[in-house]
Design goal:
Helix content: 25-40%
Distance between the termini: 32 Å
Radius of gyration: 16 Å
Shape: globular
Order of helices and strands: HEEHEHEHEHEEH
Strand order of the largest sheet: 1-7-6-2-5-3-4
Strand content: 15-25%
Structural class: alpha/beta
Largest sheet: 7 strands, mixed
């Protein structure tokens, strides 16, 4: 029911929503790491999960944001408060969810809303904590979503997915470099996107 509502809202708001496909590893949970630039980001991750990943959707949100959007509790939303001692409990909860191959957990690596024109994606260290505590197989996927209007009154969204490997070959510094190289390349290539 909520998937239909989200799809309806997104279709009414956006002109085009396109994403590239990557190979999804079977029997792996998915850690989804999107750039965080708008109020729409949770809905966009939810839509993409239903369109492409086909997993149980969960999303980590800042506690004060989740309190303003309690409906995300009904769709797998759980909170984190970076200034609280309970932060580790939230990170461990995400790791436990990702230990089940039927789950997808969305975590915004920047930890805050940042313009999608920013050239640097800061990846918070809590991501490393989550990945290292996963028991099982997990594929790590980053995406940059960029907005363009071109000749439409409604904006179009372009999702640029990147396979960052698995929790078994995870290296925090390498992943940060992968994400930032991908993000800068996407920003540059967006100039030539077909419309």
């Amino acid at each position: 029911m909520f998937q239909r509502y989200v799809t309806y809202r997104l279709r009414r708001t956006f002109n085009v929503m396109e994403f590239n496909k990557i190979d999804i590893k079977p029997n792996h949970s998915i850690l989804l790491l999107p750039n965080h630039f708008s109020w729409w980001d949770g809905f966009l991750a939810f839509w993409l999960e239903g369109k492409f990943f086909d997993r149980n959707f969960y999303i980590m949100m800042q506690e004060d944001h989740l309190q303003k959007r309690m409906f995300f509790n009904l769709t797998g939303g759980f909170s984190i408060n970076p200034q609280s001692k309970e932060m580790i409990t939230s990170l461990n909860y995400a790791s436990n969810l990702l230990s089940d191959p039927t789950n997808l957990v969305t975590i915004f690596p920047q930890g805050a809303l940042i313009s999608n024109h920013a050239e640097q994606i800061t990846v918070q260290p809590g991501i490393g904590h989550v990945i290292k505590k996963i028991k099982g197989d997990c594929q790590i996927v980053y995406y940059t979503v960029l907005v363009e209007y071109f000749e439409s009154l409604k904006p179009s969204l372009y999702f640029h997915l990147l396979d960052c490997g698995t929790n078994h070959d995870f290296n925090f510094e390498r992943m940060k470099e992968q994400i930032n190289t991908h993000h800068r390349t996407v920003l540059q290539n967006q100039i030539n996107v077909a419309h």
